[in-house]
Specification:
There is one protein chain. This protein is mostly helical. It has a single domain, classed as Up-down Bundle (Growth Hormone, Chain: A). 85% of the residues lie in helices and 0% in strands. α2 runs antiparallel to α8.
Length: 257
């Protein structure tokens, strides 16, 4: 009975988050396609990519320390709601015909900031919702879903672009965010026991301890360094991919998806 309780609560939250991520991925694809069509500029696409990556790079090391101090359920709620509000603003700008390139930059930065806190909060909440003996299975399921969403999200975005205007795609993103927000209004996410948290520990001290842990555990350090190198060499390919598809192959959104 206890297993059913944790499973029903976790997977209700989990399914809502997956639906929201699909919508966000489709909305992100729509933004990239709009930038490609409007500008055809590698510089613009590179700047948009920087707007996505830099906030996560800057906030990534400290977001987790804040998440440990904050209410995780509230952190996820605020992050999801903030990203949904940004998508709603995008829908209005596209609908009103007032959309400009610099709007996209601001929106991408805002969504990236929300994501920098959302990711650690989801990861930390999973360990509190799932019994320890099931954590490896859930981690594998999460990795599978990340890959599936990376494949399905752009295809969904390309399909939506072909059947509705861009403001409609953004409204779909807002709608899927509701699936992530609603369960969190009714379901509780346990917080760590007070004795497991360092009371009054300064933020810089927490950050130093975390970095020291990664440095001492060389396996983790090497994996992190390899992942960073892979992102460094792969991201330029993804930045230029829309231009390759549209200008060299003279193809459309579905082919890019």
């Amino acid at each position: 009975m206890r297993a059913k309780r944790w499973a029903s609560r976790f997977f209700t939250i989990w399914i809502g988050q997956q639906l929201s991520w699909i919508g966000s991925r489709a909305g992100g694809f729509a933004l990239v396609w709009w930038l490609t069509q409007e500008t055809g500029s590698a510089q613009v696409l590179a700047t948009a990519t920087l707007g996505l990556i830099v906030p996560m790079v800057v906030l990534g090391p400290i977001a987790g320390t804040y998440v440990d101090r904050w209410n995780r359920r509230l952190t996820i709620l605020v992050s999801d709601a903030s990203i949904a509000c940004v998508s709603l603003l995008l829908a209005y700008l596209f609908w009103s015909g007032r959309m400009e390139i610099w709007h996209v930059y601001l929106v991408i930065v805002a969504r990236s900031i929300g994501g920098a806190f959302h990711g650690p909060a989801i990861g930390a909440s999973t360990t509190m919702l799932v019994p320890e003996r099931y954590l490896a299975r859930v981690a594998g399921l999460n990795q599978s879903m990340i890959g599936a969403i990376q494949v399905f999200g752009p295809v969904a975005g390309a399909t939506l672009i072909s059947i509705m205007p861009l403001h409609g795609v953004m409204l779909v993103d807002v709608g899927t965010a509701a699936f992530a927000i609603l369960p969190l209004l009714f379901l509780r996410i346990p917080q760590p026991r007070p004795e497991t948290m360092e009371k009054g520990e300064p933020l810089l001290t927490s950050l130093r301890i975390a970095l020291g842990f990664v440095w001492q555990k060389r396996g983790i350090f090497y994996i992190a360094a390899l992942a960073g190198f892979m992102n460094f060499v792969i991201n330029p390919v993804f930045v230029l991919l829309p231009l390759l598809v549209t200008e060299h192959f003279e193809a459309g959104a579905l082919e890019l998806g």
